[in-house]
Write a structure and sequence with these properties.
The complex is a heterodimer of chains A (about 375) and B (about 575). Chain A is mainly alpha-helical and about 375 residues long. Chain A has helices at about 1-20, 25-35, 40-55, 60-70, 75-85, 95-105, 110-120, 125-140, 145-155, 160-170, 175-190, 195-210, 210-220, 225-240, 240-250, 260-270, 275-290, 295-305, 310-335, 340-350, 355-365. Chain B is mainly β. In chain B, the strands form 11 sheets. In chain B, strands 1-30-29-28-27 form a 5-stranded mixed beta sheet. In chain B, strands 2-33-32-31 form a 4-stranded antiparallel beta sheet, with no helix packed on it. The chains are: A mainly alpha (about 375), B mainly beta (about 575). Chains A and B meet through helix 1, helix 3, helix 5, helix 11 and helix 13 of A and helix 1 and helix 2 of B.
């Protein structure tokens, strides 16, 4: 018994000697800095981790790990360091904004989306969170999701007019505008292969830019999803590979990308010169997405083939109205003048985009 | 006992050491590792896209289509645009080239239009027309004595025999000044009143001679660009800290001009009566063709950043814009494009002329296939036309059968308007070979085609008289290129020149349908080249491996049709309206 106590005492003594001899926080900070400055980055990281374990508030330790995150492309490191600024996971809006900002800057759109959604769960009225949440769907070239988010925003507050204009531009996106998103979306898909929404955004971007082969390759390499299958069918149909388009198009109407689904069916019908069916499907696509220039142009083509002259003329005029809307919204993006919103609302009304009208009215009447 | 004590001591020292080591172990394991826990939670999967998203290799064809740049040809011309940091929009359009026979010796001569400085041209008295007479095979001499002297900032050159006297006249278009030169028939030209200065003082680009009212003489449509006052400070735009030319939307568009040739050497302004003046767009390219084969000419105008126009006759001197309803106003994706030049030809072999419109970078060139009854479908998306044209700013486009296999091929002149970040200023020209399965980019077409250029206006003309159509290209700040067609395995062919009698004497969208066995191919003969330039009045038509064309059908204005049979390969024929047999030239 005595001997056991003695053993315990000497063990504790050994521990005490170690703890008395180990470098203190200041020494660790110094050593970590020396290691970092001399280029021994692994050691600097190791020392910083030791430092933060002992002194979570160490500014130098955080700084070294933040820099290390940039150099080694480990975004989780930067996010974890940033999390330390908000102890006990306190749900402050700034936390979500900061963390989503870091995720966005690393191309991690899925992670940013999760942070923002979580933030809005706690702070549904927070303007900045709403803005970033809506803008993110825009970056992923997903007007359907952007509209859903804008409508949700309109329920809890006044959506910022510039985001409505962004939505109008996104809905009628053309190849020039799409080209500016390609690099962003490539980075996002490379940063996180499991980000299916960014992958679909990139596929959409490539399709708009006429890079159909690359679009098909990207979708080939995608995890199967109904939405990917619909886009794949559109890409195949645009390439004139009708058998492949028919193979991959879902057999029933999907829950999302319904307009794309109708568009794919319309394109297939055009290739097979089934003009009645083409007009029906493309007409449905236009109803679902009234601001798509491609859908309207193809719809006009099918009506022209059917020689439905009155209807064709009406739709052609609407296409011209849509192009006018596109130009106005582009101008307003460059030179914001929110007094022009009523003009945009009228154009949206003429084109039958009632959700867009609802949002603009909500802004005007707020 | 002593041994036992020693053992105890060792155990105690060991225990102390264990305590020390445990401390080290604790220190090593108690590291900050929140990031690893987060990584497990987030499940981020970085993965390169290189294998998936590499740019696909262009569909290329190495088929012997070959053009050699003529050397020592005696044309020391390079279009001067006066670019000196003021970023005037006029600097971007460049100049055109016209094929003309100045001295009626049967050899094609060339006229180039020059720029100068857009802000100082009234004071600048240097002539901005360069005429070159071909004195030997592909040897040119300056033809300054022709009287073709013009002071201004020039762009376009429209060649045609407007007064039906048998000699080609020249209309020069430019920035705030356009001038008509009448060919006196003795190798000299005389400046002629076209209209008053207030009309022609606009900034105009391409002109196209065409008989709008079917009275047998050529009227003229002039596509005008923007209203940019010469004496006012210009806006300069900025992209990423780089100063660039502002796009035309910073200025008001200029309305186009339509002039009626009254037959007495005078012209009447029909711009307002016809409805042309009411539509103000940024016009650059223009072509007149009988698109629906009803005997009347339609006028198609390519506009920069705005919808294109398609004027169809709707009563005497009234034109109706049918571009929207016909499907040529926008691209197939319903986008307004930065449209510049127009090529034309029967691309799909259905006997109707189709339109190829060159566009700005990041936009595909449009291929408007003619479905009949003025219905068009842009079919460029996903094709080699789309793939090759998107990185380019396209200008002149010429559709011609370069290898005479009966399938039309496409040439496009490319070059950026400004130093746009991320986009090359000098750009490769495009040459696409047609086949029944579509178009493919041609590789190894010659050194010029492998060198980035600043190309603008271009025309088709058989410079060296070998019955293979050559290309002449005007470039900004670079020597003009005379590209001789040296395609080795070219198919059989014959050449056609037409002379109208009831129709205008100069070829004005004359349709030539060639039948070989069961196949028919439609060709169009017009001097208008679509962008700032004028083609030769003679066209080489390919027969492939056939020794002759079974039938050649000519459709004149007013749908007057004449047919000729058994036209043998190698012939050079002149078809005169109303005359039953062709004249075979030596």
């Amino acid at each position: 018994m005595k001997f056991s106590l003695l053993m315990l005492t000497t063990f504790s003594l050994g521990l005490a000697v170690f703890f008395s001899q180990r470098p203190n926080v200041e020494d660790l900070t110094y050593e970590a800095s020396i290691a970092w400055n001399s280029g021994d980055l692994d050691r600097a990281e190791q020392l910083s981790r030791r430092l933060l374990a002992r002194a979570p508030d160490s500014v130098r330790g955080r700084e070294i790990l933040r820099n290390r995150s940039m150099a080694t492309n480990r975004p989780e490191l930067a996010l974890a360091v940033a999390e330390m600024d908000f102890p006990n996971n306190s749900p402050a809006p700034d936390r979500y904004i900061r963390l989503s900002g870091i995720a966005m800057s690393r191309g991690l759109f899925r992670i940013a989306d999760e942070y923002l959604a979580d933030g809005l769960h706690h702070f549904p009225d927070h303007q900045r969170l709403q803005q970033q949440f809506v803008a993110l769907s825009g970056l992923r070239l997903d007007p359907e999701e952007m509209l859903r988010r804008l409508l949700a925003w309109a329920k809890s507050g006044r959506p910022a007019p510039e985001f409505v204009i962004m939505y109008l531009g996104l809905s009628s996106l053309d190849s020039r505008a799409a080209s500016s998103s390609e690099e962003w979306l490539r980075q996002a898909v490379e940063a996180d292969a499991s980000d299916i929404d960014s992958r679909l955004g990139l596929a959409r971007c490539l399709m708009l830019m006429g890079k159909l082969e690359q679009c098909c390759k990207l979708l080939d390499a995608s995890t199967f999803s109904e939405r990917a299958a619909v886009l794949h069918a559109v890409a195949f149909a645009l390439r004139g590979e009708i058998a492949a388009a028919k193979d991959c198009i879902p057999t029933s109407v999907p829950t999302r990308f319904q307009a794309e689904y109708r568009y794919a069916l319309g394109l297939i019908a055009i290739h097979e010169e089934r003009w009645e069916e083409a007009a029906r499907e493309l007409g449905s696509a236009v109803e679902l997405k009234p601001l798509s220039t491609s859908y309207r142009a193809r719809y006009c083509e099918s009506l022209r083939r059917l020689k439905r002259d009155d209807e064709h003329l009406r739709e052609v005029k609407k296409l011209e109205t849509l192009i006018q809307l596109v130009k106005r919204s582009h101008q307003l993006q460059r030179h914001p003048d929110m007094s022009q919103l009523s003009e945009l609302r009228q154009l949206c009304e003429q084109l039958g985009d009632s959700p867009a009208v609802t949002i603009i009215s909500a802004i005007e009447n707020y | 006992m002593r041994r036992k004590r020693l053992l105890y001591s060792i155990c105690l020292v060991g225990s102390a050491c264990c305590g020390y080591v445990a401390g080290i172990a604790y220190e090593r394991t108690s590291l900050w590792a929140a990031d690893q826990r987060l990584a497990e939670l987030l499940q981020i999967e970085p993965r390169s896209l290189t294998d998936v998203l590499t740019e696909p290799a262009e569909q290329t064809a190495s088929v012997g289509l070959r053009f050699e740049e003529a050397e020592a040809h005696g044309i020391p011309f390079a279009y001067e645009n006066g670019s000196d940091g003021e970023f005037h929009l006029a600097e971007t359009l460049g100049g055109g080239v016209g094929a003309i026979d100045l001295d009626a010796d049967g050899r094609p001569d060339l006229i180039f239009v020059d720029g100068g400085h857009p802000m100082s041209w009234p004071a600048d008295q240097a002539s901005r027309i360069r005429a070159y007479r071909q004195t030997g095979s592909v040897k040119f001499q300056n033809a300054a004595s022709s009287g073709l002297s013009w002071h201004g900032y020039g762009h376009g050159c429209a060649v045609a025999d407007f007064d039906n006297d048998g000699f080609d006249d020249v209309l020069i278009t430019g920035y705030e000044k356009s001038t008509l030169f009448k060919n006196l028939g003795d190798g000299t030209f005389q400046e002629t009143d076209l209209m008053d200065d207030s009309t022609l003082g606009r900034w105009c680009a391409t002109a196209c001679w065409t008989d709008v009212d079917d009275d047998g003489d050529l009227d003229v449509y002039i596509a005008c660009y923007a209203d940019v006052p010469r004496n006012q400070p210009l806006p300069v735009c900025d992209v990423g800290g780089i100063r660039i030319h502002c796009n035309p939307s910073f200025y008001s568009p200029a309305s186009d001009i339509l002039l009626e040739n009254t037959g007495d050497g005078k012209f009447r302004d029909r711009s307002s009566d016809s409805g042309v003046a009411a539509l103000q767009e940024y016009g650059l390219g223009v072509i007149s063709l009988d698109l629906d084969q009803d005997g009347d000419r339609e006028i198609f105008v390519a506009n920069d950043g705005q919808r294109n126009l398609l004027f169809t006759p709707d009563g005497e001197w009234t034109l109706k814009d049918s571009a929207l309803i016909s499907g040529v106003a926008f691209s197939g994706q319903g986008e307004t494009m930065g449209s510049m030049g127009i090529g034309y030809g029967d691309m799909d072999g259905n006997g109707l002329p189709d339109l190829l419109v060159t566009n700005f970078s990041n936009e595909s060139n449009a291929l408007y296939l003619n479905m009949g009854q003025l219905a068009f479908v842009d079919s460029a998306q996903g094709t080699a036309i789309d793939q090759t044209s998107r990185p380019m700013v396209g200008w002149s486009s010429i559709v011609f059968d370069a290898n005479y296999d009966t399938q039309p091929d496409i040439f496009a002149a490319n070059g950026h308007v400004t130093e746009m970040p991320g986009e090359p200023f000098l750009q490769m020209p495009s040459l696409l070979m047609g086949s029944p399965n579509g178009f493919r980019a041609v590789e190894n077409a010659g050194r010029w085609f492998q060198t980035p250029q600043q190309a603008r206006g271009a025309c088709r003309v058989d410079v060296d008289g070998d019955t293979l159509d050559d290309l002449v290209v005007s470039e900004i700040g670079m020597p003009a290129a005379v590209l001789l067609n040296r395609t080795a395995a070219a198919g059989n062919r014959f050449t056609v020149r037409t002379i109208g009698t009831r129709s205008p004497r100069s070829a004005d969208a004359v349709g030539v349908t060639v039948t070989i066995g069961d196949t028919r191919r439609f060709h169009v003969l017009t001097r208008c080249a679509g962008y700032l330039s004028s083609n030769s009045g003679t066209l080489s038509i390919g027969l492939g491996s056939a020794a002759s064309a079974d039938r050649v059908s000519v459709r004149w204005a007013g749908n007057r049709i004449q047919e000729f049979s058994d036209v043998a390969a190698g012939r050079r024929i002149v078809l005169i309206e109303g005359r039953t047999d062709p004249i075979v030239m030596p």
